[in-house]
């Protein structure tokens, strides 16, 4: 596709096409809600606990629209997200705050780099990291964050990210959301248990130690061995899966996004409620 915000050779597309990255979504989500202001906004307004699959669909739909959709699709969906975030406000927080947009975009970039490198057993060089980081700024800027609020370069990003990881102090809202994310109410019931156990292990293993400790998750030598075995197995098996299979989540979520936008119609500009009962009227980015 040539009319999008990015081209097929851009690193943001090379990395983000991999459906396996969804398995690391819990890490990004719980890093975001480690920030007290993000956590309170999610706790007060999000429907994650009531309908986690809808939450996932809307989040992934927005991400894939930005990464792989047309420019019109990316900008239109993002406008809906911004509109929805206007009502996500409360004492001391608002979802459209550039401070929170910078943090959310940073976690999406950092977790994607971390998991992709483990999954494919490759290290990005400094030039690639600078390129990818520059592209990942879109996660904040397309939602209205001024670009100069983002760390300007990859080295500056590293300083910012390390500072945040070392200084963030999670809250009871953060912990409540973690319980919802790691133990979701899924329609398949007990059949999801093995997969959820693997996701919880992956989430704990990928989470920076200072944040993991604040969440109070058990982490010992035995869990670390299981984590390394899981990642090692994934790195052997997953890259050998045909690309057309690995990218099926992208195709599915782009399809649902385009269906939602078509349902709204070209001229419709509805007032969005983030707690709407209609999934097509409640797109939600990772920040809410």
Automatic annotation (TrEMBL):
The keyword Amino-acid biosynthesis does not apply. GO terms for molecular function: oxidoreductase activity. Residues 266-288 are annotated as: Disordered. Coiled coil: none annotated. Residues 13-234 form the ER-bound oxygenase mpaB/mpaB'/Rubber oxygenase catalytic domain. Its EC number is 1.-.-.-. The keyword Oxidoreductase applies. It is an enzyme of class 1 (oxidoreductase). Keywords: Oxidoreductase. PANTHER family: BLR2777 PROTEIN, ER-BOUND OXYGENASE MPAB_MPAB'_RUBBER OXYGENASE CATALYTIC DOMAIN-CONTAINING PROTEIN. This is Oxygenase MpaB family protein. It comes from Actinomadura yumaensis. The lineage of its organism: Bacteria, Bacillati, Actinomycetota, Actinomycetes, Streptosporangiales.
């Amino acid at each position: 596709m040539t009319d999008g915000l990015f081209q097929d050779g851009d690193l943001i597309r090379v990395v983000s096409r991999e459906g396996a990255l969804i398995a690391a979504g819990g890490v990004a989500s719980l890093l975001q809600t480690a920030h007290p202001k993000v956590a309170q906004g999610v706790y007060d307004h999000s429907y994650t606990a009531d309908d986690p699959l809808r939450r996932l669909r809307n989040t992934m739909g927005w991400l894939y629209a930005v990464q792989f959709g047309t420019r019109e699709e990316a900008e239109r969906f993002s406008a809906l997200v911004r509109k929805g975030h206007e009502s996500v406000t409360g004492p001391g927080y608002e979802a459209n705050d550039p401070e929170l947009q910078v943090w959310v975009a940073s976690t999406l970039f950092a977790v994607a780099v971390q998991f992709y490198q483990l999954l494919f057993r490759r290290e990005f060089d400094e030039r690639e990291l600078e390129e990818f980081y520059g592209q990942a700024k879109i996660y904040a800027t397309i939602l209205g964050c001024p670009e100069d609020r983002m760390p300007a370069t990859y080295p500056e990003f590293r300083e910012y990210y390390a500072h945040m990881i070392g200084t963030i102090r999670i809250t009871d809202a953060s912990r409540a959301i973690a319980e919802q994310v790691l133990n979701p109410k899924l329609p398949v019931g007990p059949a999801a248990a093995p997969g959820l156990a693997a996701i919880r292990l992956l989430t704990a293993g990928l989470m920076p130690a200072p944040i993991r400790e604040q969440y109070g998750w058990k982490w010992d030598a035995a869990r670390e061995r299981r984590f390394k075995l899981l990642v090692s197995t994934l790195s052997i098996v997953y890259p050998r899966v045909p690309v057309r299979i690995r990218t099926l989540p992208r195709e599915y979520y782009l399809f649902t996004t385009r269906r939602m936008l078509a349902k709204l119609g070209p001229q419709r500009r509805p007032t969005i409620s983030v707690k709407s009962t209609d999934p097509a009227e409640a797109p939600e980015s990772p920040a809410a």
